[in-house]
Amino acid sequence: MATCHVLSCHINPRDRSSCTRLLVPLLDGTECGPSQWCLKGRCVSPSTLGSSMMVHGSWSSWSEFSVCSRTCGGGITYRRRQCNHPRPAFGGTVCKEQDTEAELCNQESTQLEFMSQQCSATDQKLLSVSPDSSSVYTWIPAVGYSSGDAQCKLMCRSREQDFMVSRGSQFIDGTRCKAAHTAPRGSISACLGGKCQLFGCDGVTHSGKVEDVCGVCGGNGSTCQFISNTYLGGEAGEYVTFLSLPLNASQVHVINTKPVFTHLAVLLNDKYVVSGDGNPGLSITYPSPLEKSLIIYNLFLTPDHLPQNEELTISGPITDKIHIQVCSVRAWRVFGCVWTRGGSENSVVCLLPSWI
């Protein structure tokens, strides 16, 4: 019997041998073979149809935006459309572009904590380590160990034995993730449907919006200017502030190329987040790679494991009190910094300096 002449259906989905025939033909446009479609009960090819029968797909209207996936702490709202106005048929082209548009909502800087809550919620869920053995572990985020889509698969790390595994299907939509590749300035990466999606600086997927050097979303870099400065000073055994960052500062970049007898420290709201105990700090991203505004400190070593240089980057825009300090184990040394004060935006940018 011809494929398109009678609609056949399984009575029991679990029994592939159960089948019944309904005395109706398949709908026109149903695929019945490679590059073949049903038309009036017959399976026909493009040469039979002619170009006049081809139907190109077109998008439906957008749905309403969904409720935000989180009431606070950063979630996602999205809307969808379908390629059914009309559906592509008889070899017509499918709809181009995206079928989902998402926006960030209810944003707050508690991203690592939210991921931690989801991992710890699986602490009592047994993990089978072998066919005859199951164990309970304490689970923490696998930030720094996983990135991209894999991270959004509820990827967590065992605190006890330091291995990572997926603890479920996916993180809640809106959970921040670390992009697998370097993301444009000011963009945000968040989980959506188990995938790490890139949002523009305006919080909209696929918008392509990026921040300029002044920290302005979609700006052209005209609201700030570069200023070069050099610091001469320091006290042996004491932390001395040589740069206090104004509010709205962005793209701060400081390098210490003589870290054997000196080291940098960062004081955030009267709390040390880099060094502060008299010793050079360990490389750190504060508060976590999941946040938008980061303090990134790296200590680079020579092949002999001696300090070679320190590098400090603060993306901004700055919203807190931040003081950058230097501590010397001997008498004062020379430090330099390049920074900018903006115009109408009153932004400040610190760039790679010329050190003495």
From TrEMBL:
- Give the UniProt keywords, A-Z: Disulfide bond, Glycoprotein, Hydrolase, Metal-binding, Secreted, Zinc
Question: Which molecular-function annotation in GO is an example for this chain?
Answer: metalloendopeptidase activity
A single Gene Ontology biological process assigned to it is:
extracellular matrix organization
Annotated InterPro entries: ADAMTS/ADAMTS-like, ADAMTS_ADAMTS-like, ADAMTS_CR_2, ADAMTS_CR_3, ADAMTS_spacer1, TSP1_rpt, TSP1_rpt_sf
Does the entry annotate any disulfide bonds, and if so which pairs?
4-38, 32-43, 68-105, 83-95
ADAMTS/ADAMTS-like cysteine-rich domain residues are: 110-224
The signal peptide, as residue positions, is none
All residue ranges annotated as the ADAMTS cysteine-rich domain in the record:
3-44
Note the superkingdom of the native organism.
Eukaryota
Presence of keyword Disulfide bond: yes
Location of the protein in the cell: Secreted
This protein is called Uncharacterized protein
One annotated Gene Ontology cellular component of this protein: extracellular matrix
One Pfam family named in its UniProt record:
ADAMTS_spacer1
